Input
Amino acid sequence: MVGLIRNRGRQCVETIRTVCAHDCPDMCSLLVQVENGRVVRVVGDPDQPFTAGFACAKVTQDAALVHSPERLTTPLRRTGAKGASAFAPITWDAALDEITARWRAVIGESGPLAILGYAYSAHQGQMNRGLVNGLFHALGASRLQAGTVCDTCCETAWDLTVGPVGGADPEAVVDADLIVAWGADLVATNVHFWAKVETARKRGIQLVVIDPRRSRTAERADWHLPIRIGTDAALALGVMHVLVRDGLCDRRYIAEQTIGFERLERDVLPRFTCDRVAAITGLAVADIERLAALYGAAKRSFIRLGEGMTRLAQGGQALRAVALLPGVTGAYGRRGGGALLLTAASCELNYNAIRKPSGPTTTRLVNHLRLGEALLNMADPPIRALFVASNNPAVTCPDVGKVRNGLARDDLFTVVHDPFMSTTARYADIVLPAATYLETEDFYRAYGTYYMQYGPRAVAPQGEAWSNFRLAQALAARLGLTDPVFRLPERALLREFFNGAAGPAATVDLERLAEAGPICLAPAGGQEFRTPSGKLEFYSETLASQGAPPMPDWQPDPEDVREAARWKLRLLTAPGYFQAHTAYAGVAFLRQREGAPLCVMHPEDAAARRLSDGQRVRLFNDRGSVGLVLRVADEIQPGVVLVPGQRPDEEAVSGTINLLCSDRYTDMGEGATYQSTWLDVAAWDA
Output
């Protein structure tokens, strides 16, 4: 774990191998250079094949994140109105005393369900995230259905189609004979996979990008298909229609490894002619024919699925339709072929040893995307105490106005543990300084590759910052929880993950894991299916039993149709290249590289509203208004407004984009519907 130590004059430079804990599928192995207790350089580990010796442009700035002058350095108690950022320093003992006293009072008066506490994805370490959630599980508190703001729709749809199992090995993309990035901006969100794609392209392999936006990935692709938002299922079904028509299906694979294709072929596909699909998607008939021919000719087509295309009303149908395509051609059965959404389900560890050490099996649930609704209206009992770590829900949740109104309740006792004074922290009663990942020790498993790795801390926590892990154990001790996980050090707790592990994870040598760097658990052979039938499910009996469409289909969403008639413009959100989410907001250099928060409109839409490039504009609908800077460009289609990144209010003209997004659910997984947001745009001063 600790590498070369060199003397530079009287200064000591130490290189430490650790792991990037940002919310990213790549989970890079890093080499961190430390000089006299300060991080001076962060680079990618050349000995980890997927990281391949480079870190992304954001992570290379993590020395500035650790040593940012904007870091919180001491616990704080609120002294003014909620949201006003009025705080005074207190000691850790005073903070912990107040927190535990308030929680004991809430439990005594209203029961543990009146408390909601969680850690989310800003720290991907399994201990620093899991043990906080384990604390509230042991207390019997209300539980957050985490991830509905992000990936529950796509995960649920994948599980109903392929099963709870990882997809194609991303490193196998170098063996593909066609690569399709479907709703995935690889340059922004999966840059190490992008590097593998570039290796394949040097062999002449084509990259097709299907995305409503001409992203940087689309600009560099061999072919970009600018599909209309929310029509991915129609395109996938149109491709299947052509594959059937032209005899390009692998009938043997379909018969042996899938179920329900004959029903789809008979009842659904005849309706998705190229003419109809062109009218739905906005693509040319010739392009649909060309895509189907390319896909049908490929034997090892690799589809990299993006999560963003599922964050709308019919997102589950979209994911199911696209994920079924490799089953039609048999690509799932060949290395280099198939589809990749996530990989974490194939890392079968005993997560519950940390996340659920004790406490009731079932309890009241709070959907993450409806946190604001829960804070305002949940009763019997109402939520009276809230704890948030590694998350900024006052920016990232949909219908964020509700979240802020809930956080502003005078009778809600809120604690936030964060390295910076986030928007959410401004509403807290107690703010605690959190350690960054380079100041923590943890165990990691990727969700976009098949690697796991143990990561030591590179430097001691700055100021009085504590890790989530330390805080969870300290609170557990004060609250009288006796579960062993709340006393064990990190290295000892590592063993708990593997007590009862299954699959390849059961064979891991823990000593090697703790000392020798990354371990790869990539599956061999073709795609495994863990559906109830044990096959790829074109027809899902599970969905049929729930009264949901058992086969993928596409119909206009009625609420989207109504909203489109009123507002004309549809929102498209996408990660920023340097401010993918607010965890990077503490680095001034990255904020400057990203630029001011902006929206992008097509020249036709801007001209129709007499708006010009660089102008301050107001985005609005029934839920509120947001002020951003306008960029006029044809990277998106008419009728669309693109807003990159999730940026806090103080960087924008006014507000944050999620003020305009509703908290309604997707068709599967009760996920967020950011892309089913309709609005209009006017001059800021109009």
Summary: The chain has a mean pLDDT of 95. DSSP finds 24 helices and 28 strands in the chain.
